[in-house]
Amino acid sequence: MASLTDRVRGNGRIAAGLLLNLLASICIVFLNKWIYVHYGFPNMSLTLVHFVVTWLGLYVCQKLDIFAPKSLPPSKLLLLALSFCGFVVFTNLSLQNNTIGTYQLAKAMTTPVIIVIQTLCYKKTFSIKIQLTLIPITLGVILNSYYDVKFNFLGMVFAALGVLVTSLYQVWVGAKQHELQVNSMQLLYYQAPMSSAMLLVAVPFFEPVFGEGGIFGPWSVSALLMVLLSGVIAFMVNLSIYWIIGNTSPVTYNMFGHFKFCITLFGGYVLFKDPLSVNQGLGMLCTLFGILAYTHFKLSEQEGSKSKLVQRP
């Protein structure tokens, strides 16, 4: 009876964690878009707020013994912290300058780019099935971009830069976690303040600091509350991702990711009245099919590798 109760509680906690991640992941996209459209808050300054709130949140977490910090040499994290700045800034600039559909689909190109980087730079090999899934993903993104009524060349440049830097960041994070023997929260705990310091130096060169449109400008109370809320939600996204992966499985996280992908696309057209043509819809379905196929083949290969290890005497 006790074990059944524990299982129900455990499932309840997992369901609550998944729900928190779902709400936070969708909210952060829509809230950031709302801040850009209705308040015009500067992009890099918003990213700086996110980094500072994430760092403070992680500081509270380690004080509550949610994770144990590990001493790391700053020189080993400089490139990682710089790429962290780049990927968040460019991704937010993509969101600011594109429709939510185009922004969301462009992010799907991260998987093909990571595969190219790992193949060329790390000599990693991928099966033919995995390579073939990149065709519908890429084709869908091209279809959507070509038929996007609100096509923005600058937005596509930011989206492309965002995908490239995000891909590099994800590859380097995996390499650094293995090299330094740390988990994602331990890495982010040292990385977030370094990235904050870098942006603090960079912001005055690209955006006003004081006066109209500056981070310390005459913003309304509602604008400041929205920005602060955006920072808190960004931290919740990071924290809930870590918790979900630690308490469920990659299958759960990936499948849940596809669900969020669909809801975010749908929400963008409902909330921001973004136009959607039939060809764009086909492009989205094409990309979604490619992502699902990639996930299926990747997880099948991982399960096959695990079963071979178990069977080995």
Brief overview:
The protein is mostly helical and 313 residues long.
Question: Can you give a write-up of this model?
Answer:
The chain is mostly helical and 313 residues long. It has a domain at 24-41 and 74-186 and 237-304. It contains 11 helices and no strands. It has helices spanning 2-39, 43-63, 78-97, 100-107, 110-121, 128-146, 153-180, 184-206, 221-247, 250-271, 278-311. The longest helix has 38 residues, at 2-39. The protein is globular, with a radius of gyration of 20 Å. The model has no long low-confidence stretch (mean pLDDT 80).
Give descriptors for this structure.
single chain, 313 residues, mainly alpha, 81% helix, 0% strand
Measured as a percent range, the helix fraction is: over 70%
Share of residues in strands? under 5%
Using only C-alpha atoms, the radius of gyration works out to 20 Å
Q: Ends: how far apart?
A: 37 Å
From N to C, what is the helix and strand string?
HHHHHHHHHHH
Global structural class:
mainly alpha
What global shape is seen? Answer: globular
Q: Helices, strands, pairings?
A:
Layout: H1 2-39, H2 43-63, H3 78-97, H4 100-107, H5 110-121, H6 128-146, H7 153-180, H8 184-206, H9 221-247, H10 250-271, H11 278-311
